[in-house]
């Protein structure tokens, strides 16, 4: 008898396998975009606008052209001759590639210089003379809709004001009726500030157009190479087989590398014009002031309550500031993304959400920074409103949540805003968290400390996130449905190559996809190579964002492995000289049901596929599977934070943080924990220190790492992670749900709620993030809410 394979030992499902990609990263052998050198390559730099809103009177490039080593100076005027001064956005708006008429935000791309090296190109930018006529500036929605506000998008026909859309969902009348019957109405107004993904590697591209073959190859920092290829094909009217997008190693994406940026487009046109490779590498300030930001959204929310703690209805109005162009890279038909996933974990009979999007003189963006398209805002609003409601009712915040959660036997559950959540054990997660943090004890300590003038606080946040966009009935990008595919080739030696259309940016796909193959076929994970990111070799896929890789591409990997197993079974029957019905499968091996010791391994089937196949069978052992997810996956988490606030300085310290994440079956528990740690770190940073805002002239405050801080291990508190709650996803082939963003989505409210709890006796209802010491101090000292909405004073 052969020993059954130990799945953990071969690196299958549940193995905390070390990340194979780290082997090259920690040796400095990664292949990032700036590592790539092509023969004859030129370098591009971008001239950006110093002003937030101004008419361009004249651009004089003559001095730049004269600099030795300058090959090309691109302006909007030249782009316009190719119909490329403007480009369409994924949200059906238009965005300037290089400004022609006006600049509409500080940092907007005005011209590009292509030269022998980046320094000459930079000198070239400085030699361009632009004459601006300043215009009044808008930095928030209130200013955008004010009487007499300057019209930002005067380039658009039929755009008479600065409003992009009005949107609503839910039942307005039913909500009204429920509010009329409420014992109490709890109201909260706040601003979720602009935040920035800020990956360590900035954006960049190398365009390489070959006149002889007419083929355009672009190396690009993109999370979604196939979508970029489709967009280039549509915009440049080039056939797809003449375009190759390669996304090399990516130094962090976090949503920043989903949108299409002017730099990409300009490097492509420059390469076509010059017939040489053109490299563009963005600098850190360029990244912070001009690329896709996140959030910047205002909430006016109300909860209708019964005295016994039951939530009767919720009502929310949200004002979203999108910046100068509506360029949200999100695939839903909903203008405000998945904001209406709010309250999905709570059993709420009725609700109504209205939203308004407006333009402002700020860089475009809004949806992306570790979020499933505004889920971060949705969960933040939800958990801040829940805490305020519990406080207003005088109820314990944990008990209030438990009383309103969707119960385990209520799934699939239809939310008042139309989502269908799939599964979960919400109360159990909460209980695990409360026990871990020592809830009852902490409440006692808090009361004792308060009596001695010390301010302790405890904050709870929960989140459920719709991950895995999305089923083809409801999601598309430019009409392209959101399925993904995986291709699996088993070599004759039994080693394998798997490719998907996702693109890892640090999440570890090279490690985890191999584990799925290992789980399905019993091939050791170390025998499976994973490739992603090259549209010439990878099968079609919609890319990596919204933690959709495991839900969609990962599912496709499982499905293609099953196709391979089905063929291998036929080979096994042939080798064992029995009929297929008599063949049984155990991990890595087929055997004869009546004689279990007679069997063949998957590796023996692989060689047979090339050397000894039954009559009539096509040789080879490879296949492709497309996966159209039936629903989104809905992970759940509870985050609990305890803090101490120093009333003298407003400084707050985290005493303890507990995280209970249920993302279904964990493929690689260590990688999942890494994702949660990273997300909590970012959540802490958003709540505590990341400050990027604007003064009344539209100057970006926070355009560098002195102001916009990245937390290091020094600032970051420790986190205690819990993995004991596992609710397998009912519709995913291996029961996995996404995890990549959960902690960043649910984390911020836990920190803010903790600080608010510590000062709950002051009557202060809200301090906007980041909870900088001066804001907390102001709230404590003057007993008033502190808004973080721009404009800020720029004189310090
Ligand atoms: N995983 C697992 N078991 C599960 C779920 C996931 O082992 N039940 C593993 C996956 O196999 C994968 C990783 O965890 O290796 C993340 O998987 P998933 O939740 O599917 O998320 P994606 O791979 O689609 O990653 C996207 C997500 C997003 S949208 C942002 S933003 C973000 C995030 O990932 N950006 C990141 N985490 C990041 N981590 C790093 N290091 N860098 C980024 O840019
Ligand atoms: Cu919203 S950031 Mo991730 O989806 O790439």
Describe, in plain words, how this protein is organized in 3D.
- With 796 residues, this protein is an alpha+beta fold.
- Helix content is 28%, strand content 25%.
- The protein has 19 helices and 35 strands.
- Strands 3-7-1-14-11-12-13 form a 7-stranded mixed beta sheet. A 5-stranded mixed beta sheet has the order 9-17-16-15-10.
- Helix 14 (509-521) links the parallel strand 25 and strand 26.
- Helix 15 (549-576) crosses helix 16 (602-611).
- The longest helix has 28 residues, at 549-576.
- It binds pterin cytosine dinucleotide (MCN) and CU(I)-S-MO(IV)(=O)OH cluster (CUN).
- Pterin cytosine dinucleotide (MCN) binds at residues 199, 252-255, 370, 505-509, 512, 544-550, 554, 663-668, 671-672, 675, 678, 736-741.
List keywords for this structure.
796 residues, alpha+beta, seven-stranded mixed sheet, five-stranded mixed sheet, 28% helix, 25% strand, binds pterin cytosine dinucleotide, binds CU(I)-S-MO(IV)(=O)OH cluster
Helix-strand layout with pairing:
Blueprint: H1 22-25, E1 42-48, E2 54-60, H2 62-66, E3 70-75, H3 76-81, E4 86-88, E5 94-96, E6 102-103, E7 109-115, H4 118-126, E8 129-134, H5 141-145, E9 163-170, H6 172-180, E10 184-195, E11 204-210, E12 215-220, H7 225-236, E13 243-246, H8 262-274, E14 278-281, H9 284-290, E15 293-305, E16 311-321, E17 350-358, E18 365-366, H10 375-393, H11 397-404, E19 413-414, E20 420-421, H12 426-437, H13 439-451, E21 455-464, E22 476-477, E23 480-481, E24 484-490, E25 496-500, H14 509-521, E26 528-532, H15 549-576, E27 583-586, E28 589-592, E29 595-601, H16 602-611, E30 622-627, E31 636-645, E32 652-662, H17 669-688, E33 693-694, E34 700-701, E35 720-722, H18 742-758, H19 773-782
Parallel strand pairs: 1-14, 12-13, 16-17, 25-26, 32-35
Antiparallel strand pairs: 1-7, 2-6, 2-8, 3-7, 4-5, 9-17, 10-15, 11-12, 11-14, 15-16, 19-20, 21-31, 22-23, 24-25, 24-30, 27-28, 28-29, 31-32, 33-34
Helix pairs in contact: 10-18, 14-15, 15-16, 17-18
The chain binds pterin cytosine dinucleotide and CU(I)-S-MO(IV)(=O)OH cluster.
């Amino acid at each position: 008898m052969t020993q059954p394979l130990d799945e953990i030992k071969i690196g299958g499902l549940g193995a905390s396998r070390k990340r194979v990609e780290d082997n090259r990263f920690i040796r400095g052998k990664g292949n990032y975009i700036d590592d790539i050198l092509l023969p004859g390559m030129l370098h591009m730099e971008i001239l950006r606008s110093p002003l937030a809103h101004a008419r361009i009177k004249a651009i004089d490039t003559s001095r730049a052209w004269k600099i030795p080593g300058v090959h090309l100076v691109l302006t909007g005027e030249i782009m316009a001759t190719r119909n490329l001064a403007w480009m369409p956005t994924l949200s059906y708006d238009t965005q300037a590639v290089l400004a022609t008429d006006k600049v509409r935000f500080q940092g907007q791309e005005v011209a590009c210089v292509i030269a022998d090296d980046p320094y000459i190109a930079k000198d070239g930018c400085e030699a361009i003379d632009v004459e601006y006529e300043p215009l009044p500036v808008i930095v928030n929605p209130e200013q955008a809709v004010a009487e007499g506000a300057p019209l930002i998008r005067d380039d658009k026909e039929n755009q008479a004001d600065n409003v992009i859309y009005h949107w609503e969902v839910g039942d307005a009348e039913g909500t009204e009726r429920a509010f009329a019957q409420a014992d109490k109405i709890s109201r909260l107004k706040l601003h979720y500030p602009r935040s920035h993904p800020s990956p360590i590697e900035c954006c960049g591209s190398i365009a390489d157009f070959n006149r002889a073959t007419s083929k355009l190859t672009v190396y690009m920092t993109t999370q979604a190479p196939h979508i970029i290829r489709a967009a280039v094909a549509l915009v440049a009217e080039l056939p797809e087989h003449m375009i190759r997008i390669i996304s090399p190693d990516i130094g962090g994406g976090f949503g920043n590398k989903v949108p299409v940026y002017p730099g990409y487009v300009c490097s492509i046109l420059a390469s076509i014009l010059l017939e040489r490779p053109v490299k563009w590498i963005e600098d850190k300030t360029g990244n912070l002031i001009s690329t896709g930001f996140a959030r910047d959204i205002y909430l006016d929310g109300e909860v209708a309550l019964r005295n016994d703690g039951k939530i009767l209805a919720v009502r929310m109005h949200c004002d979203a500031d999108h910046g100068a162009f509506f360029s949200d890279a999100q695939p839903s038909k909903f203008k405000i993304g998945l904001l209406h996933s709010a309250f999905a974990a709570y059993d709420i009979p009725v609700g109504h959400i209205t939203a308004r999007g407006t333009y402002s003189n700020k860089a475009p963006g809004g949806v992306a920074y570790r979020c499933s398209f505004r889920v971060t805002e949705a969960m933040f609003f939800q958990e801040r409103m829940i805490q305020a409601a519990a406080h207003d009712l005088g109820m314990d915040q944990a008990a209030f949540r438990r009383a309103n959660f969707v119960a385990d036997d209520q799934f699939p559950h239809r939310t008042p805003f139309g989502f269908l959540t799939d599964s979960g054990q919400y109360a159990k997660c909460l209980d695990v968290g409360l026990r871990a943090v020592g809830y009852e004890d902490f409440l006692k300590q808090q009361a004792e400390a308060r009596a001695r003038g010390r301010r302790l606080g405890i904050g709870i946040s929960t989140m459920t996130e719709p991950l895995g966009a999305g089923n083809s009935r409801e999601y598309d990008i430019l009409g392209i449905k959101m399925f993904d595919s995986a291709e699996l080739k088993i070599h004759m030696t039994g080693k394998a190559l798997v490719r998907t259309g996702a693109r890892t940016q640090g999440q570890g796909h090279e490690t985890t996809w191999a584990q799925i193959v290992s789980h399905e076929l019993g091939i050791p994970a170390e025998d499976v190579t994973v490739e992603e990111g090259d549209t010439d070799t990878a099968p079609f896929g919609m890319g990596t964002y919204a933690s959709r890789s495991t839900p969609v591409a990962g599912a496709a990997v499982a499905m293609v492995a099953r196709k391979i197993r089905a063929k291998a079974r036929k080979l096994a029957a042939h080798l064992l000289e029995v009929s297929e019905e008599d063949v049984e499968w155990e991990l890595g091996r087929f055997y004869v049901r009546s004689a279990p010791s007679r069997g063949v391994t998957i590796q023996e089937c692989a060689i047979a596929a090339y050397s000894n196949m039954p009559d009539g069978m096509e040789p080879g052992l490879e296949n492709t599977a497309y996966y159209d997810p039936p629903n989104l996956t809905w992970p759940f988490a509870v985050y609990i934070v305890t803090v101490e606030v120093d009333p003298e300085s407003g400084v707050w310290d985290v005493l303890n943080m507990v995280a209970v994440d249920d993302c279904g079956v964990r493929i690689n528990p260590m990688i999942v924990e890494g994702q949660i740690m990273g997300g909590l770190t970012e959540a802490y940073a958003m709540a505590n220190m990341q400050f990027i805002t604007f003064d009344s002239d539209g100057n970006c405050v926070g355009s560098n790492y002195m102001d916009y801080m990245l937390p290091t291990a020094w600032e970051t508190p420790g986190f205690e992670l819990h993995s004991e709650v596992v609710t397998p996803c009912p519709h995913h082939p291996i029961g996995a749900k996404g995890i990549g963003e959960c902690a960043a989505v649910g984390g911020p409210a836990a920190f803010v709620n903790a600080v608010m709890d510590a000062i709950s006796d002051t009557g202060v209802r809200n301090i906007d993030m980041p909870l900088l010491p001066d804001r907390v101090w102001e709230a404590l000292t003057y007993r008033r809410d502190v808004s973080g909405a721009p404009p800020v004073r720029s004189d310090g």
